[in-house]
Amino acid sequence: MPSFTFSSEKGQWYITWVLTLLILVAVLCCYEKFLQSKNYQPSVAADQSLWNWHRKHVQKNDSVIVLAGASRIQLGLNTAVMRQLLPDHTIIPLSVNGHYPMATLQNLADDELFEGLLVVSFTAQMLEPQYWDMQRKYVENFSENYNSYTAWDAKLTAVLKSNFRFFHHALGVQKVIESLARSKTFPKTSYVFGQADSSAEGYYDLVDKQLLRKRFVTEKQQNYQDNPAMNKTLWQQQINTLNSLVQKIERRGGEVVLLRFPTDGGHWQLDERYYPRQDFWDVLTEKYPNINTIHFKDDEILSSFELPDSSHLDVADAKVFTARFIELLQQKQLIPQTH
Question: Does residue 339 have a pLDDT over 70?
């Protein structure tokens, strides 16, 4: 009899746990449907561990395409479109929001395993000495502290967060309760949604574009005023160093392309005032015609977009921009033609 009672109680506990789990799943499914109805999107916050995961997958393979830069390439090259149009290539985003990529370029130049195509989001300002090491901490952390457990954990977490809205950091239970108590509304999320591969998509209809544009232009003007452009002598020295890194990759069969993403309105006017194309970009391309370059102003499609914040592409435009960019890479024979 005692044995029978014990088994009965154990079975009841199993039933209780199963029912609890089913209720929890049902609640989460309902919450996910609710968030979807409110046009919330899943989002992943990229971090060092996720960057390490992608950096580790740079293999000795000429079909690898690495994307290096900051927010413009994160938002401007749609990796889903790239994978759809280039199914035989491995796309590896190594961009870091707010950080120029020269340290990553140098790291890949020194890596004998890398012999693929490196796409660098390029502006003249990124060669200023004070910006050269902006991604250095990412490179050094990968070299010194890479851990397969944390990298795998970051990757699996990113996959989950990219598929379920309720994992969004602003839509957790505590954040929702606080927002409802404070303003009787659900929390507002950013208009930029991170993807599992560290790229991002911008949905600018969710934000006041006029206000955002004004802020971006004001901040860029202040940045240029606080950090005067280098003189012509220093620019020559910096592009010499840049060319040596590019040649290092090219000598072992790799390729590098410098891509100048669009800016428009007041932002482009500031770019031209402080870093005139004829004094910087044109000097680079004339001195080193071996370096592959694509400037948005040289292509009718790449220069046709209205940028909602003066500096980044909306997700719909990014898809068109990406498809055209791939066509230009094929025309330059940097990647094979696809059908």
Answer: no
| Residue 211, both tokens | 């206000």
pTM of the full structure = 0.88
Handedness of CA 319, 333, 261, 246 (dihedral sign): positive
Is 48-145+208-331 a domain of CATH 3.40.50.620?
Answer: no
> How many CB atoms sit inside 10 A of residue 149's CB?
8
> In angstroms, what CA-CA distances link 89 with 62, 152, 258, 273?
9, 22, 19, 39
Distances (CA, A) of 173 to 170, 178, 179, 180, 332: 9, 9, 10, 11, 51
E-only strand ranges, 220-291: 255-260
Tokens of 97: 């929001």
Tokens 């919330």 sit at which residue? 40
Q: How far is CA 230 from CA 82, 261, 338, in A?
A: 35, 21, 42
CA distance 267 to 107: 31
Summarize the confidence of residues 299-310 as an average pLDDT: 96
Two tokens, residue 99: 């950080």
Tens of pLDDT, residues 196-220: 999 999 999 989 999 999 999 999 9
